[in-house]
């Protein structure tokens, strides 16, 4: 076990859950939640906010008397909800895509997020001992956050200027300014392109050499790592080097279609379903491999409840979780919120009161049971590979399939499908129920990471659990307004709020599109099973290949889920992610070559990784904040009748030049980042 440099008795005197800390944590939560909602809708990814929140907290609270490492930890614990609860957008926009919602009802959206978030915290409390205290799981982000908190503890001497919180904030700001300027040039002035592609034909086969210039995705790539980057590249190569060329060479091209439109249409209608099938089988495999820790977690949970609350009083501070009685009370309140929210969602449907109650009970039970089962799986995945790389989408896919199949049986036996709009209603209910499971899964994924950080610095677990509940509530209050704002400003692919909107500016919401496609296909019996099954076969092959590679070359892997995402996501999204992973790899390799002394090398690698992580977080936050601000400007402009692009310069014949400028800015930004990351 690693221990903080301060003595245990000194740490015991520290204040942890303070009013100023909760206020600061709430402010950071609001900013990072908005950023994550925007990024998730744009590319289907979110970022873990623990590390940048810890740095900001240390820089701000240092100005106040009595601040300490445990108080800073509580701020980052609370703010970390922003990077996780916002993943509910991987499902919820589907309700607009199927036409069931025309916006995001505030109370239904907020309460479903609050209920799912709180249950995510509670379900992982009994798992702390088996997956954190008595486990050798690495918890990479939890460990990194603990090291940053210890390095920035102003009560201890700093080894170098790079360890100070102010230095960390400067790195976040540097990344934020770079990506913010680029995002403004792209979505504000619209003089720079965010992507470029080279298309060519060999016989009848169409190929694409893609490029994307998003700095936020470059930062996400740094966090993903080279293993995930190579897997994404393999998925990209399968899509645009094998599958699309095959389909374009064997499918007659319509007379009025261009080569590019023809290839993209085949990718959307055929190849993407192969990616969905690969993701689905990878998700199931993930759950199978995690079956044992799930059973251990459930066993420990029952033991915790059966032991009663008498042991909690005698436990030391660093071992005190929320008591079983408190947890049962919170679960009861949360279940009441869930039941009320589900009933308000179902009440608008033209069904009998008895059937409405039955559907409410079914939805609540499924959300509760499936949520409890995935909590252990999500926590284990977070401990194994980190929250940012954890395949939460796999949980969503498996959940939406199970929930849709159950509701399909209920709908067929009760005659709901025979009524007008019955199919749409049951699809919407399945998506709404799956959103609760997604919230539970994402918070579970994050909670154990935070508890690992607390364990390493001797924080009080029950206070961390309270802090994360507060963060879930604050984040939930922000999600609905931000979703409404972004929807009205940009729209989503397949769901535009107004006719005549520029569809190229719409947020793709790739995860929500996938979940919605699966649910609609199950209820309408027209899912593209041929291509999905081809993806399933590909996923099985990738799983076997991954197992073989791991045995032949320990330390190497080909994550099947990442390959599936490489097939499913647009190439312009995948390319900057891959470049970010390569940037991370070569920076670390350069440090290893520069320093041969093991101690110096280890210290420099840690410092380089810290700088890279903070700069990457800044890149993501900067672009996301500009995106949200631009959404506000666009909505205000529309309300005033000034159009949807109030700041656009509308330059003529500028497409080629905008792509060149995008490439120049992208390369220049990489050079600046490398210089910042590798500075001595």
From TrEMBL:
Keywords: Membrane, Transmembrane, Transmembrane helix, Transport. It is found in: Membrane. One of its GO terms (cellular component) is membrane. The keyword Protein transport does not apply. It is a multi-pass membrane protein. The keyword Ligase does not apply. It comes from the Bacteria. The chain crosses the membrane at residues 21-39, 82-101, 107-127, 172-192, 198-223, 230-248, 271-291, 327-347, 353-383, 395-419, 425-445, 466-483, 530-549, 561-586, 613-640, 660-678. GO terms for molecular function: oligopeptide transmembrane transporter activity. NCBIfam families: OPT family oligopeptide transporter, OPT_sfam. PANTHER family: OLIGOPEPTIDE TRANSPORTER YGL114W-RELATED. This is Oligopeptide transporter, OPT family.
């Amino acid at each position: 076990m690693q221990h903080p440099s301060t003595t245990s008795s000194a740490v015991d005197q520290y204040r942890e859950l303070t009013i100023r800390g909760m206020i600061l944590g709430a402010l950071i939560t609001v900013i990072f939640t908005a950023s994550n909602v925007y990024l998730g809708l744009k590319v289907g990814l979110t970022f873990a906010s623990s590390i940048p929140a810890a740095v900001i907290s240390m820089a701000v609270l240092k100005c106040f008397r009595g601040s300490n490492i445990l108080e800073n930890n509580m701020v980052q614990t609370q703010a970390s909800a922003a990077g996780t609860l916002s993943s509910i957008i991987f499902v919820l926009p589907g309700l607009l895509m199927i036409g069931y919602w025309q916006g995001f009802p505030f109370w239904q959206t907020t309460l479903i997020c609050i209920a799912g978030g709180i249950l995510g915290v509670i379900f992982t409390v009994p798992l702390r001992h088996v997956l954190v205290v008595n486990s050798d799981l690495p918890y990479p982000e939890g460990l990194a956050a603990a090291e940053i908190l210890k390095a920035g503890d102003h009560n201890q001497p700093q080894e170098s200027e790079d360890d100070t919180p102010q230095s960390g904030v400067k790195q976040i700001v540097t990344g934020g300014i770079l990506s913010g300027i680029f995002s403004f040039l792209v979505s504000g002035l619209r003089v720079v392109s965010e992507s470029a592609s080279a298309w060519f034909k060999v016989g009848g086969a169409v190929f694409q050499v893609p490029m994307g210039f998003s700095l936020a995705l470059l930062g996400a790539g740094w966090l993903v790592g080279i293993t995930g980057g190579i897997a994404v590249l393999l998925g990209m190569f399968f899509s645009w080097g094998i599958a699309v060329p095959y389909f374009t060479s064997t499918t007659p091209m319509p007379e009025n279609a261009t080569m590019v439109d023809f290839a993209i249409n085949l990718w959307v209608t055929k190849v993407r379903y192969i990616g969905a099938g690969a993701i689905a089988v990878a998700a199931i495999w993930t759950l199978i491999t995690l079956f044992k820790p799930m059973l251990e977690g459930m066993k420990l949970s029952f033991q915790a409840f059966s032991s009663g609350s008498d042991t909690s009083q005698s436990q030391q501070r660093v071992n005190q979780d929320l008591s079983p009685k408190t947890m049962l009370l919170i679960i009861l309140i949360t279940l009441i919120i869930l039941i009320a929210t589900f009933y308000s969602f179902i009440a608008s449907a033209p069904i009998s009161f008895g059937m409405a109650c039955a559907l409410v009970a079914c939805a609540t039970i499924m959300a509760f049971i499936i949520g409890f089962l995935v909590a252990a799986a999500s926590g284990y995945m977070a401990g194994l590979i980190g929250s940012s790389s954890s395949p939460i989408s796999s949980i969503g896919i498996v959940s939406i399939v199970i929930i849709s199949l159950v509701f399909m049986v209920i709908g067929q036996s009760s005659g709901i499908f025979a009524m007008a709009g019955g199919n749409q209603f049951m699809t919407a209910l399945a998506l709404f129920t799956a959103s609760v499971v997604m919230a539970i899964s994402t918070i579970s994924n994050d909670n154990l990471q935070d508890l690992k950080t607390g364990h390493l610095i001797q924080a009080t677990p029950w206070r961390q659990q309270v802090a994360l509940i507060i963060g879930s509530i604050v984040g939930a209050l922000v999600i609905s307004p931000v979703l409404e704002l972004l929807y009205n400003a940009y729209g989503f692919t397949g769901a535009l709020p107004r006719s005549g909107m520029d569809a190229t500016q719409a947020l793709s919401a790739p995860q929500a599109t996938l979940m919605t496609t699966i649910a609609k296909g199950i209820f309408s019996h027209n899912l593209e099973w041929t291509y999905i099954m081809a993806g399933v076969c590909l996923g099985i092959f990738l799983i076997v290949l991954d197992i073989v590679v791991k045995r032949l070359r320990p330390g190497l892997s080909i994550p099947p889920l990442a390959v599936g995402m490489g097939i499913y996501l647009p190439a312009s999204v995948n390319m900057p992610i891959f470049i970010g992973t390569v940037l991370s790899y070569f920076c670390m390799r350069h440090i290893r070559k520069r320093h041969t002394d093991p101690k110096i090398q280890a210290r420099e690698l840690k410092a380089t990784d810290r700088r890279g992580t903070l700069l990457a977080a800044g890149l993501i936050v900067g672009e996301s904040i500009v995106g949200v601000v631009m959404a506000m400007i666009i909505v205000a402009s529309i309300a005033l009748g000034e159009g949807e692009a109030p700041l656009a310069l509308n330059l003529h014949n500028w497409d080629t030049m905008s792509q060149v400028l995008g490439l120049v800015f992208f390369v220049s930004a990489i050079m600046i980042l490398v210089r910042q990351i590798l500075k001595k």
